[in-house]
Amino acid sequence: MILNASGCLDALTAPGVARSLDAFVTKTVTPLLRAGNPPTRIAETDAGMLNSIGLQNPGIDRFCADALPRLRELGVPLWVSVGGFAAADYAELCARLDGEPGIAALELNVSCPNVASPVDATEEIVRAARAVTAKPLYTKLSPSAPDVAAAAEAAAAAGTDGLSVVNTLRGLALDERTLRPVVASGTGGYSGPALRPVALAAVFACHRATGLPIVGMGGVESGRHALDLIAAGASAVALGTVLFRDPSAPGRIRAELAAEAAARGFADPLAARGVAHEESAAPLPPSTKTPAKTP
Amino acid sequence: MLLRVSRAGLEPGEPGQFFMLSPPGRVLPRPMSLCLALPGELGFLLDPIGPGTRALAALETGDELDVLGPLGNGFRLDVERPLLVGGGIGIAPLPYLAERLGGAPALLGFRSAEHAEAAALLPGAEVVVEPEYVTERLEPGHGVLACGPEPMLRAVAALAPGAQLAWEAPMACGYGACYGCAVEIGGTLRRLCVEGPVLAAADVAAPLAREEAA
């Protein structure tokens, strides 16, 4: 299953790209309108990019009134990402969306690096959201957590149905000439190829810790990258930065993923889920002490 | 320099629209407005000042690159007494614009005589070099279509409130996905790739993004 990473696609300006996904994840919606951070908002780095958009969105009322009806018409399963600054914000958003038809899942963005972190812990946020909705809940975790597996366990204990792993890392880029930050807010969320091994390690740890469904994401550019995340424990894969350069990435990566899995003897890509945790199929030959013979 | 690519099914679009060109080895594509619609080819004017534009400038004949476009909203062509005003690398969309208008006078400004060599793309254009500015030569009564650095566009907008201005902002995607190119339009931050890049002079009210380290 191929999704987009939240904030990396607008289904209303690019409906064809959204329809090439197995589910579309919205940009994070907050209780009130957010104008977003001032420009400059993005910077390319050697192995990725920084963004500091600042959760620009129209707020839940206008989202429900304007965007949601048009998103439903796309005919793509819809995940809505929600964000806030306290557990009560998430509860308010989830309660509101619980009553809306045509939403397949809710993603709790508890890990945006470009706005102030929620005052409440992940566990409290998930518990508050769980109390008000029966819709599937995915909790999006930060790769910056000192122990991402512990965060995953806390979210699981609080009733999350799945995990989205990972959000961006905090990064900084300086202008070549002025040596001042390129991005106006200073730091930004770091994504792209550099995030790949970080995401893989986080998915690996979260799968081992919880066994929950995981949307794996971070630097995926090819079917092989997607297969790696599945082998580490992901049950779906989301595309982010790659969509900016290649809007046709969902179809291409889906086909590559099928071929990469088949080439390794898996009937289906998801048959490879978690194999990174199994003992190697071909263990190393034994090591033995043996006397040397001199001529 | 002028980068020419085979059309390979790409439409040239309207003048002022742009394409996303993916430099080999870079993470993000770069927005470039179409400079020339040549027979079977599209031409883009490049100033190789950063890693992306340098990688594009280093392409050799036969190398392949990904190109997405045309994107955004171009210039309206139903203009009386059109005058094309360009500054520096911002003259990029003007040759194709001049062609589509069936010829139009142009006023171009450059930082130095060396940079002014690019004016050869618009034969007959009036050229000024710093410390003189295009706004010192701008006469009333024209339908101004302008592209250039932000200070130039602001100065043009002050003199010609009816002008159409082609703006620039750092973009990751060019098709509304990333929200990276937001600029203040009509008092709110909106995506330049969706709303622009050509905007009415009256529409932009606040400072735009700093110059991109392309």
Kindly report the greatest chain-chain contact and the residue count on each side: A-B, 39 and 33 residues
What is the terminal-to-terminal distance of chain B? Answer: 15 Å
Radius of gyration of chain A: 21 Å
The CATH architecture designation of the largest domain in chain B is 3-Layer(aba) Sandwich
The oligomeric state of the chains shown is heterodimer
Summarize the SSE layout with pairings.
The complex is a heterodimer of chains A (295) and B (214).
Chain A: E1 2-4, H1 15-19, E2 24-25, E3 42-45, E4 48-51, H2 60-72, E5 78-82, H3 87-98, E6 105-109, H4 122-130, E7 137-141, H5 148-157, E8 162-165, E9 169-171, E10 188-191, H6 196-210, E11 214-217, H7 223-232, E12 236-239, H8 242-245, H9 249-263
Parallel strand pairs in A: 1-12, 2-5, 5-6, 6-7, 7-8, 8-11, 11-12
Antiparallel strand pairs in A: 3-4, 4-10, 9-10
Chain B: E1 2-6, E2 18-21, E3 30-33, E4 36-38, E5 41-45, H1 51-57, E6 67-71, E7 82-87, H2 94-100, E8 106-110, E9 126-129, E10 143-147, H3 150-159, E11 164-166, E12 182-185, E13 188-191, H4 192-195, E14 198-200
Parallel strand pairs in B: 7-8, 7-10, 8-9, 10-11
Antiparallel strand pairs in B: 1-5, 2-3, 2-6, 4-5, 11-14, 12-13
How would you describe this protein?
The complex is a heterodimer of chains A (295) and B (214). Chain A has 295 residues and is of the alpha/beta class. Chain A has a single domain (2-36, 55-172, 194-276), classed as Aldolase class I (TIM Barrel), CATH 3.20.20.70. Helix content of chain A is 32%, strand content 16%. Chain A contains 9 helices and 12 strands. Chain A has helices spanning 15-19, 60-72, 87-98, 122-130, 148-157, 196-210, 223-232, 242-245, 249-263, and strands spanning 2-4, 24-25, 42-45, 48-51, 78-82, 105-109, 137-141, 162-165, 169-171, 188-191, 214-217, 236-239. In chain A, helix 4 runs parallel beside helix 5 and helix 5 crosses helix 6. Chain B is of the alpha/beta class and 214 residues long. Chain B folds into 2 domains: 2-71, Elongation Factor Tu (Ef-tu), domain 3 (Beta Barrel); 82-213, Rossmann fold (3-Layer(aba) Sandwich), CATH 3.40.50. Chain B is 13% helix and 28% strand. Chain B has helices at 51-57, 94-100, 150-159, 192-195; strands spanning 2-6, 18-21, 30-33, 36-38, 41-45, 67-71, 82-87, 106-110, 126-129, 143-147, 164-166, 182-185, 188-191, 198-200. Chain B has a 6-stranded mixed beta sheet with strand order 9-8-7-10-11-14, with helices on both faces. In chain B, strands 1-5-4 form a 3-stranded antiparallel beta sheet, with no helix packed on it. In chain B, strand 7, helix 2 and strand 8 (106-110) form a beta-alpha-beta unit. The longest helix of chain B has 10 residues, at 150-159. The radius of gyration of chain B is 16 Å and the shape is globular.
